[in-house]
């Protein structure tokens, strides 16, 4: 019976893909080996990182996600705005319930349940509208750089343990990765590092994605300047720098010109921490990849490392970079920032130990909070609950006037006949359309 269900599940996936032309993303357990150890973890299309989705601005993309794993999750799309289409945004228990094992959900990528995004992630590239181009000189080529994490244990089991053992902290990475590889400077790293081949004189657009669960990262390329031109699907004024600082879930587009002596150069990333770096709980190592010039030359014994790479605790370097970012805000790409501020809010985000009673016993676990209020997963998604509540209100506002009209027109049979035959069915059709048409599942880009 299990084999039959699996066959039907894959048959449904194939039929939906062929009939609709949508992109199907199967998510299931896969084995990957790094740092002398193999891990079984959820991945998309059997790849880590997941596949890249390319679309143009203004396109509508349909993505059918099939959960072939052992636990539920959702997908969230960082940087993709969802005006009037919150059903496809993806935060777990906020806009939708989890995609349970053996089921699927169509979004019109990064998972949003616990720490599954440590392995379930991929890049979505939104190209300019067809017939237009970038607001900066067109690069000769593009490359995606995914900054990720590698754990030695089962992240989900570690997280479940850490949440109820308040002294445990949170799962710690064994290493960071660039395009899933930890590089040469990490103990027991047998895989060759990720390598980007470049031609002298050409300019490359690096689309950098930080999928690390809970750490900001510095990133730099030895002896090469980076020109930031965009972040989180928004163009910025050009910013020339020798390093960037990128937050979890953030994307950043940078230009790099291969204008140095042909050789091999390290691309490197390291964690930025705001706590005392002598404290345990952060990864004090560099992840590296190689920028390698094409052509004939004598390669160095070892690639050069970024000379002025910020140290882990350099607050001035992190804040100094972020404070220089400015929106492009030109005629073609306007930014309408509200200037009339009517309300000011003070919100404190914190991580604390929460105590509560469960079945008569006092329990404690780690929880985040806003202004000392924590969120507990509801039985259904908040958006769905709000939508159904709005539906009840809508029904009342519709049917109460209909009841009054019905009572009134009972005295006038001629009008009552046309009311029953034409007006009432039309109103009911509108009601049905409101109920069935609100659950839009498409992603507008």
UniProtKB/TrEMBL annotation:
Name recorded for this polypeptide: laccase
Molecular function as annotated in GO: copper ion binding; hydroquinone:oxygen oxidoreductase activity
Domain Plastocyanin-like, chain residue ranges per copy: 27-113, 144-296
PANTHER family, sorted: LACCASE, MULTI-COPPER OXIDASE
One cellular component (GO) term of this entry: apoplast
InterPro entries: Cu-oxidase-like_N, Cu-oxidase_2nd, Cu-oxidase_fam, Cupredoxin, CuRO_1_LCC, CuRO_2_LCC
Region forming the signal peptide: 1-24
Membrane spanning residue stretches: 389-415, 422-440
Domain of life assignment: Eukaryota
Organism: Vitis rotundifolia
GO term, biological process aspect, one: lignin catabolic process
Pfam families: Cu-oxidase (PF00394), Cu-oxidase_3 (PF07732)
